[in-house]
Amino acid sequence: MSNAKVIWKGGLSFEGSADSGFTLPLDTTAAQGGQDSGFRPMELLLVGLAGCTGMDVISILKKKQQDVVSFEVAVHGERAEEHPRIYTHITIEYILTGHAIDPAAAKRAVELSETKYCSAQAMLSKAAKIDHVITIKEA
């Protein structure tokens, strides 16, 4: 079981916390009535997705002895025009830098994250089309 809670800090500002004991600020823009002092809840969904799949992919690549020296996951979410609180299309870009990284190993790691490991991706894929882009750079 996982637990999370938010505590209202005034206006549209909240502080979120989870079982880990870590906290993070949640808010919205001043134009929307907030103080622009933290993550917007919809952005936090994308951060969670990036973290979930990123941890999977780097773990799998390290087990496959791929020489990754830096790694970034960029997630881009497009919202529906008629309902801007719903993502309809998400693109996850994996940017790997290393020495002789095998593109097939990188593709397999992404596929495993998508189909077997990342629960955030499994949940979001029911609402949005998710595409993956893998960029490999030589260090």
- Which spans have pLDDT < 50 for at least 5 consecutive residues? none
CATH class of the largest domain: Alpha Beta
Count of discrete domains: 2
Order of the strands making up the biggest sheet? 1-2-3
| Helix fraction bin | 25-40%
Structural category is alpha+beta
CATH superfamily of the largest domain: K homology (KH) domain
Written as H for each helix and E for each strand, in order along the chain, the element string is EEEHEEHHE
**SS strand fraction:** 35-45%
- CATH fold name of the largest domain: GMP Synthetase, Chain A, domain 3
Molecular structure report:
The protein has 139 residues and is of the alpha+beta class. It folds into two domains: 39 residues; 98 residues, K homology (KH) domain (GMP Synthetase, Chain A, domain 3, 2-Layer Sandwich). Helices cover 32% and strands 38% of the residues. It contains three helices and six strands. The strands form two sheets. The chain has a three-stranded antiparallel β-sheet, with no helix packed on it. Strand 1 and strand 2 form a beta hairpin. The model has no long low-confidence stretch (mean pLDDT 93).
State the main characteristics:
139 residues, alpha+beta, GMP Synthetase, Chain A, domain 3, three-stranded mixed sheet, 3 helices
Brief rundown of the structure:
This protein is α+β, with helices and mostly antiparallel strands and 139 residues long. It is built from three helices and six strands; from the N terminus they run βββαββααβ. It has two domains: 1-39; 41-138, GMP Synthetase, Chain A, domain 3 (2-Layer Sandwich).
